[in-house]
């Protein structure tokens, strides 16, 4: 029964995902505008918001094994739709500049201008005439084969109403190749503890990744070795692609296969501790102030169950304010309640109100609140989510952010009788990042 408690994380992670918005910052917003992994939408997914990651989404989604980028990081496109954060599981901002136009204002609106200038053109210089008195121009030396691009450290702290605590520190280094492609190495430690009935587990992940452009498509791929403090090691894979098919329309797809490393219980259930998540995603910039983001993720769990999660967000900006509507649906072939949270019919809808603005010339604040309802087993109950994010421009080459969020899904009668909990699920999350560019 205790294992089941942690399946609720899916519900709130999805809720957190529905809370993220679609704003990006050209210089300092800590959210990676890549359209290859939404889980990684749990922190920008608000929020890891997709570890909003689909990664954040997908990692949370297997509450089928007692666990939680929906990581979200949701992974569908990693778009911190306002924050994901969000998802990878925490808000990577390493390559935001790839999709952001130059701007004198560090808090920009790259999604409203040239998102799709992936190929730059150089202006050839005419050779000097024979009668020119100027000295011949020395040829520019070729760029080095590999250079240090940036160094990023992500950290997070999460607790829920079932006493589970997850904390992490994950540094990563990114290198840029002469052709513009990138290589990355990410490691660190993730500690999962205080789950009743289970011993604490520490995970030491090592991920090697590649990102580059093939024609107009942005492609990402990575492999992760997960070493555990007291369990056998495991390997995960992820990949994604995004293509601008129109000046205001981006479509993409993603795939992830990973162990459900988000609660000690989910790591100790042979046969259900690994899942695959894959599916398409779409970002449509309808006009200067209106955007639509949507994805669907198909889930295959090692225990034979399968399902899907969909998310749609329609957002409108009014100066520094914004309003949005969000809808999340989840459906599995087999409902394993009360042992695993794999509902055959689950939905969340909500309205969102947000504000973002500069507090000083180097500090930016974003706040939002989401109110709505969830439907589970035919019963409707309330849902609440809010978050605050402070972003700082520390220097021309350094920036940081810290994000605080809280979400709660009210209990329904079936699970109240099964678990005795007052809330279906509630979670507090603190996510941060420090980035240096070279």
Short description:
By secondary structure, this protein is mainly beta. It is 8% helix and 48% strand. It has one domain (2-115, 142-437): monomeric porin ompg (Porin, Beta Barrel), CATH 2.40.160.
In terms of DSSP E residues, the strand content is over 45%
Structural class: mainly beta
Number of strands: 17
SSE order: HHHEEEEEEEEHEEEEEEEEHE
Which stretches are low in confidence, meaning pLDDT under 50 for 5 or more residues running? Answer: 1-8, 18-126
Helical content (DSSP H or I, runs of 4+): under 10%
Total of domains: 1
Report on the biggest sheet.
17 strands, antiparallel
Indicate the CATH class.
Mainly Beta
Radius of gyration: 22 Å
Shape: globular
CATH superfamily: monomeric porin ompg
CATH-derived topology: Porin
Average residue pLDDT: 76
Helix count, DSSP H or I runs of 4 or more residues: 5
Distance between the termini: 50 Å
The CATH architecture comes to Beta Barrel
């Amino acid at each position: 029964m205790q294992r089941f408690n942690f399946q609720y994380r899916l519900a709130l992670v999805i809720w957190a995902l529905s809370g993220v918005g679609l704003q990006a910052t050209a210089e300092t917003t800590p959210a990676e505008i890549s359209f290859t992994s939404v889980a990684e939408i749990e922190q920008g997914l608000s929020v890891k918001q997709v570890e909003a990651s689909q990664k954040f989404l997908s990692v949370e989604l297997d509450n089928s094994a007692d666990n939680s980028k929906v990581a979200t990081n949701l992974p569908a496109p990693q778009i911190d739709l306002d924050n994901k954060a969000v998802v990878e599981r925490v808000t990577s901002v390493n390559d935001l500049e790839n999709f952001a136009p130059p701007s004198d204002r560090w808090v920009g609106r790259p999604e409203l201008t040239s998102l799709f200038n992936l190929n730059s053109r150089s202006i050839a210089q005419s050779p000097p005439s024979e009668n020119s008195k100027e000295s011949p121009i020395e040829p520019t030396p070729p760029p080095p084969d590999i250079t240090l691009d940036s160094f990023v450290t992500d950290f997070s702290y999460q607790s829920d109403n079932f006493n589970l605590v997850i904390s992490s520190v994950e540094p990563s280094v990114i290198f840029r190749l002469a052709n513009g492609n990138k290589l990355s190495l990410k490691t660190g430690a993730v500690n999962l503890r205080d789950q009743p009935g289970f011993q604490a587990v520490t995970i030491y992940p090592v991920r090697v990744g590649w990102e580059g452009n093939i024609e107009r498509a942005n492609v990402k791929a990575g492999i992760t070795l997960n070493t555990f403090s007291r369990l056998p090691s495991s390997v995960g894979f992820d990949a994604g692609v995004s293509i601008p098919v129109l000046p205001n329309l981006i479509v993409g797809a993603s795939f992830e296969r990973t162990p459900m490393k988000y609660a000690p219980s989910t790591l100790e259930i042979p046969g259900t501790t690994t899942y695959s998540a894959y599916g398409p995603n779409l970002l449509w910039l309808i006009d200067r102030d209106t955007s639509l983001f949507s994805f669907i993720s198909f889930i295959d769990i090692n225990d034979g169950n399968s399902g899907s999660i969909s998310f749609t967000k329609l957002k409108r900006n009014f100066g520094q304010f914004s309003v949005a509507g969000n809808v999340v649906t989840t459906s599995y072939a087999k409902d394993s309640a009360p042992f695993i949270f794999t509902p055959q019919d689950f939905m969340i809808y909500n309205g969102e109100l947000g504000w973002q603005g500069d507090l000083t010339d180097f500090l930016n604040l974003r706040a939002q609140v989401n109110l709505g309802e969830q439907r589970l087993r035919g019963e409707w109950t309330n849902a609440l989510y809010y978050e605050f994010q402070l972003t700082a421009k520390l220097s021309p080459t350094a920036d940081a952010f810290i994000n605080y969020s809280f979400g709660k899904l009210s209990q329904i009668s079936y699970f109240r009788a099964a678990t005795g909990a007052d809330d279906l699920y509630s979670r507090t999350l603190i996510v941060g990042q420090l980035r240096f560019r070279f």
